[in-house]
Amino acid sequence: MMLSGIVIGRAKVVVGGLAEGKALISSQPITFFGGVDPRTGEVIEDGHEIRGERLSRKVLVFPHGKGSTVGSYVLYSLAKRGVAPAAIINARFDAIIASGCIISGIPLLIAPGRSLGRIRKGDRIRIDGRVGRIVVLGSGSRTRP
Q1: Considering the entire predicted model, what is its pTM?
Q2: CA 20 to 30 Å from 14, out of 99, 120, 129, 134?
Q3: pLDDT tens-digit profile of 113-140?
Q4: At what angle do helices 95-104 and 71-81 cross, to 10 degrees?
Q5: CATH of the domain at 66
Q6: Quick one: DSSP state of residue 123?
Q7: Catalytic annotation present for 68
């Protein structure tokens, strides 16, 4: 089934902007402080389902953040080094993620779980943070990570 060009949902805009990239999906919350290498953007948290993945230029889809407020500054550091996600989509609002995205200029959308379940790892995603639109441009893996 090809999902190319399909609008899969509307989302609440927390940080606006336009972004495009391959989807990187986690069903687990992410901590940026201690869970992501601030120099490389690689997920380093022991036991995390996307450990070893790099966030750079990806549309990062995960339920919400966890951990220290320093995570906001890790997101900022990732952006300054050019290894931050192109955009983030969360299922629920998290102040740490929101703060990090605001100071870093990373588009952030909050989307219902039903919409998130339609995104697959590797899908090419376009985020329109002006209106909260999520579009799948091309399909990736048909199985979740």
Answers
A1: 0.90
A2: 120
A3: 777 888 899 999 999 999 999 999 988 7
A4: 30
A5: 3.50.30.10
A6: -
A7: yes
The per-residue DSSP string of 63-78 comes to S-B-S-TTHHHHHHHH
Rounded alpha-carbon distances, angstroms, from residue 105 to 55, 80, 138 = 15, 10, 25
Beta pairing, strands 108-110 & 87-90: parallel
The residue to which tokens 């990187």 are assigned: 24
The answer as to whether 143 is a domain residue is: no
Average pLDDT for residues 24-30, to the nearest whole number?
A: 96
Active-site residue among 68, 72, 99, 141?
68
CA contacts within 13 A on the Cβ side of 141: 11
Is residue 144 one of the residues assigned to a domain?
no
Q: Which domain holds residue 18?
A: 6-138
Residue 145 falls inside a structural domain: no
38 found inside a domain: yes
List, in order, residues 6 or more apart from 11 with CB less than 8 Å away. 89, 109, 110, 111, 112, 115, 132, 133, 134
